[in-house]
Amino acid sequence: MHNRTHFFRYLCGMNNTITILGIESSCDDTSAAVLRNNVLLSNVIASQAVHIKYGGVIPELASRAHQQNIIPVVDTALKEAGIGIDEVDAIAFTRGPGLVGSLLVGVSFAKGLSIARNIPLVEVNHLQGHILSHLIDLPDRELPHPRFPFLCLLVSGGHTQIVRVDSPSEMEILGTTIDDAAGEAFDKCAKVMGLPYPGGPVIDRLAQEGDPKAFHFARPHVDGFNYSFSGLKTSFLYTLRDAVKENPNFIEEHKADLCASLQHTIIEILLKQLVRVSKETGIRDIAIAGGVSANSGLRNGIVAEGKKRGWRTFLPEFKFTTDNAAMIAMSGYHRYQKGEFSSLDIAPVARLEELL
Are residues 77 and 175 in the same domain? Predict the structure, then answer.
């Protein structure tokens, strides 16, 4: 009876507006959002400051904080959108990839709400959500949207990929990192320099005061359109180790130049492969997404590359770069339109490979 009711609601929704409640809990941000068709009505995020003193996300602490945050966050999202829970056509939730304990909180809450209110469930791939954030509009304005097919450089703490996007449901990973992600390289190199967590934004700020060509670090040589950042990290570490032996104050005296050179190298690696893929595919609508897409150097770099190569470039609004439920609701909206509902025995998955 549960599934038959869902199907009836789905058929009714095809002739009216579709309202999606999105829930995101893949890492250390608890978020809920309400989307009506492709227009965002609310997007609430509760971050967890508890991890700062540990220099990284502690999974057990993250899942406990999600348990505390999820009810007030969802309640606030509904209130800010000006709707009641009975007006929601479907609940979209992040199934993975991410931290299992964190995902479990969001998935379990979505299931409970689905049972209590007889609202259909829609599972979402977190990474596809980042990409589809480019299709969201705001109540006061339409945002620029890439045309299909487009390429998306997805760059975050855990993933670095070039994805061909043929439609909201048809995506192909053309290149991916074979070891570390770009965001991980930023954070780990920041930690070596003694910068606070998360290190990426701190490097971005300091880089604006430094010389991007002051230091040279290793560039990877990998097959196809893939990425590698482990060699860069090692090169950076050895540079600091050798220099500190000669001058114990080396890092402090050259912090801005180190940050600028590191950021310049990472962005150069990212854009070089993206240019190759664009030439190979002939696709000139180019987007970036994920946490590292907030980096000013990457944003400026892709715009400059776009002007040089005749691309139409698309930068996400800063509020859509970090983990957020708006992108989950957007992906859920398109899955709802295709009638792709999840059963109540759905389980979270930690790794991307398990979602493909």
Answer: no
Facing residues of 285 across strands? 312
Same domain, 90 and 193: no
> Residue 276: which of 296, 305, 313 has the closest Cα?
305
> Are the C-beta atoms of residues 169 and 304 closer than 8 Å to each other?
no
What the block records as the tokens of 186 is 């930023």
| 352 band by pLDDT with thresholds 50, 70 and 90 | confident
* Chain centroid offset of residue 117 CA: 30
Asked whether the beta carbons of 330 and 132 are under 8 A apart, the reply is yes
In DSSP terms, 122 is beta-bridged to: 92
Q: Is 84 exposed, middle or buried (0-12, 13-18, 19+ CB in 10 A)?
A: exposed
CATH number of the domain that 269 lies in? 3.30.420.40
C-alpha to C-alpha distances, 171 to 90, 174, 280, nearest whole angstrom: 23, 9, 17
Contacts of 105 (CB under 8 A, 6+ apart): 25, 30, 63, 66, 67, 70
Are residue 69 and residue 203 in the same domain, yes or no?
A: no
Residue 277 is part of which domain span?
150-316
Task: Write down the residue that tokens 């770099």 correspond to.
Answer: 301
Angle between the N-to-C axes of helices 182-192 and 230-246, in degrees from 0 to 180, rounded to the nearest 10: 10
Per the CB < 8 A criterion, the answer to whether 316 and 221 are in contact is: no
Residue with tokens 């320099």: 193
Same domain, 174 and 280: yes
pLDDT band at 10 (very low <50, low <70, confident <90, very high): low
- Count H helices and E strands in the chain, helices first: 11, 10
Closest-CA residue to 91 (of 108, 71, 111) = 111
Q: Which amino acid is at 101?
A: G
DSSP 177-196: BSS--HHHHHHHHHHHTTPP
State whether 267 and 169 are in the same domain.
yes
User: Of 153, 242, 151, 258, whose CA–CA distance to 195 is shortest?
Assistant: 258
0.90 exceeded by pTM:
yes
Distances (CA, A) of 50 to 78, 100, 192, 271: 26, 19, 21, 34
d(CA 300, CA 325): 26
State the pLDDT at residue 1: 39
Same domain, 35 and 137: yes
